[in-house]
Amino acid sequence: MGRVAGAHAVRGWVKVQVFTQQPDGLLPYRTWWLARDGDWRPFQVEEASVHGRSIIAKLAGCEGREGAAALRGAEVGLPREQLPPSEAGEYYWSDLQGVLVRNMDGSTLGVVTGLLETGANQVLVVQAERERLIPFVEAVVKSVDLAQGSMVVDWGVDF
């Protein structure tokens, strides 16, 4: 749901780059889980507020600028059961990771390994023999079947 971008000021606050649709998407949650190398640990949120397109937060146990700087690069997440269900045609980014991507001709383009926020739209990072960046927009993404772990896109193999 986000990533710690670094320290904010000198009293142990962190700046979080938010991956939710709205910048305040993490604010309702009082416990955030932070991870480095897949090792997830809970942190109580003492205070948090929107700061532009980011959030600044004071996490319990995070003291001083050095403590906040040590969290730089950590992933920020929440247990899946705490999240509201997605609407039809909407997906959590984590649900799309690992999905097999084929084009309209049935050619396999690869597997979704990540997503990028570009400002204009989201972009799928699809990995096979090479990396492809495919816009995650209605004109390109024709269907998504999470139950089958597959997606069909209008995208050429040579793009």
Describe what this molecule looks like in 3D.
The protein is mostly beta strands and about 160 residues long. It folds into two domains: about 1-80, RimM (Elongation Factor Tu (Ef-tu), domain 3); about 95-155, PRC-barrel domain (SH3 type barrels). It is built from two helices and twelve strands. Strands 1-2-5-4-3-6 form a six-stranded antiparallel barrel. It has a six-stranded mixed sheet with strand order 10-9-8-7-12-11. The relative contact order is 0.15. The model has no long low-confidence stretch (mean pLDDT about 95).
Q: Level of helix content?
A: under 10%
Name given to the CATH homologous superfamily of the largest domain: RimM
CATH topology term of the largest domain? Elongation Factor Tu (Ef-tu), domain 3
Number-wise, the strands total: 12
* Rg computed from alpha carbons, rounded to a whole number of angstroms: 18 Å
Architecture of the largest domain in CATH? Beta Barrel
Overall morphology = elongated
Bin the strand percentage. over 45%
Termini Cα gap: 29 Å
> Which quaternary structure do these chains form?
single chain
What count of structural domains? 2
Taken in chain order, the helices and strands follow as EEEEEHEHEEEEEE
Instruction: Count the DSSP helices.
Output: 2
Biggest sheet: strands, sense, closure? 6 strands, antiparallel, barrel
Given this structure, which CATH class of the largest domain is correct?
A: Mainly Beta
Order of the strands making up the biggest sheet: 1-2-5-4-3-6
Mean pLDDT: 93
